[in-house]
UniProtKB/TrEMBL annotation:
<dbReference type="GO" id="GO:0006417">
    <property type="term" value="P:regulation of translation"/>
</dbReference>
<feature type="repeat" description="Pumilio">
    <location>
        <begin position="206"/>
        <end position="238"/>
    </location>
</feature>
<dbReference type="GO" id="GO:0005737">
    <property type="term" value="C:cytoplasm"/>
</dbReference>
<protein>
    <recommendedName>
        <fullName>PUM-HD domain-containing protein</fullName>
    </recommendedName>
</protein>
<keyword id="KW-0677">Repeat</keyword>
<keyword id="KW-0810">Translation regulation</keyword>
<dbReference type="InterPro" id="IPR016024">
    <property type="entry name" value="ARM-type_fold"/>
</dbReference>
<dbReference type="GO" id="GO:0003729">
    <property type="term" value="F:mRNA binding"/>
</dbReference>
<dbReference type="InterPro" id="IPR011989">
    <property type="entry name" value="ARM-like"/>
</dbReference>
<dbReference type="Pfam" id="PF00806">
    <property type="entry name" value="PUF"/>
</dbReference>
<dbReference type="InterPro" id="IPR001313">
    <property type="entry name" value="Pumilio_RNA-bd_rpt"/>
</dbReference>
<feature type="domain" description="PUM-HD">
    <location>
        <begin position="114"/>
        <end position="238"/>
    </location>
</feature>
<dbReference type="InterPro" id="IPR033133">
    <property type="entry name" value="PUM-HD"/>
</dbReference>
<feature type="repeat" description="Pumilio">
    <location>
        <begin position="170"/>
        <end position="205"/>
    </location>
</feature>
Length: 238
């Protein structure tokens, strides 16, 4: 039933209820309540369907916006040419999960409880479509967890340029701390194999002045070795 049909049905019910109210005596109230309840039920069903359509519309709009700002324009253009559904599946998976009954937490909320919620989502086989963009704001904390570290490394192989840049921006400010922890070092080594040169040069620059200390560290030495392998000659000399 379209919106016009739903509105007509509701109006008919309300008019009928009003007729009973005006034309009867002691039995009026119960009849009126029954008809008004039915009208309310129809109206509620319409609102639920309208809400579903609205969420779907937001889903598509979010996908379009993410595609427009994705640094990897080659990929976004390819998805634009394929179909709106392909675009939505790639850029708006968090909205899809919410519409299907899954729970996607507010990834910007602070505290360990948020990280724990993300880890539960990662471990759930139903959420295998999760991407790195879904853990934005929590990369350093997740990289220190064995499951979170494994998730980040696996998703790096299929990450967009924008997601890789996101990892660099979140990890670089904490590089000295993360480089001395077991699980984050795996993420750092994997990350250094990806991404625009300007970002891994910035990360390596943050290691300068701490090379000796990290080289003597059980885990830090792995980061220094990887950084030396991929760095440009000018940074190697430094």
């Amino acid at each position: 039933m379209d919106n016009k049909g739903k509105s007509k049905a509701i109006d008919d019910y309300v008019r009928t209820a009003s007729h009973f109210h005006r034309g009867s005596g002691s039995g009026i109230d119960s009849g009126k309540e029954i008809w008004e309840d039915d009208a309310a039920t129809i109206a509620l069903g319409g609102r639920q369907r309208d809400r579903s359509l609205f969420l779907s519309f937001l889903d598509e709009q979010e996908a379009c916006l993410r595609a427009l700002i994705d640094p990897d324009q080659e990929l976004s253009c390819k998805l634009w040419r394929q179909s709106p559904e392909a675009l939505k599946n790639h850029y708006a998976l968090d909205v899809d999960m919410a519409c299907s009954g899954g729970h996607v937490p507010n990834i910007n909320a602070p505290g360990n409880s948020q990280v724990n919620s993300l880890l539960q989502l990662i471990k759930n086989p139903v959420n295998q479509s999760m991407r790195l963009i879904n853990v934005k704001g929590h990369v350093p904390a997740l990289s220190a967890d064995p499951i979170g570290s494994c998730f980040i490394r696996q998703k790096l192989d299929e990450a967009t340029t924008g997601e890789i840049v996101m990892l660099y921006k979140e990890i670089t400010p904490h590089i000295l701390t993360l480089a001395t922890d077991a699980f984050p070092t795996y993420v750092i080594q994997k990350l250094l194999e990806h991404g625009p040169a300007v970002y891994f040069r910035i990360l390596i620059a943050n290691l300068m002045g701490h090379v000796l200390h990290l080289s003597l560290h059980l885990y830090g030495c792995r980061v220094i070795q990887k950084a030396f392998e991929i760095s440009d000659i000018d940074q190697q000399i430094k």
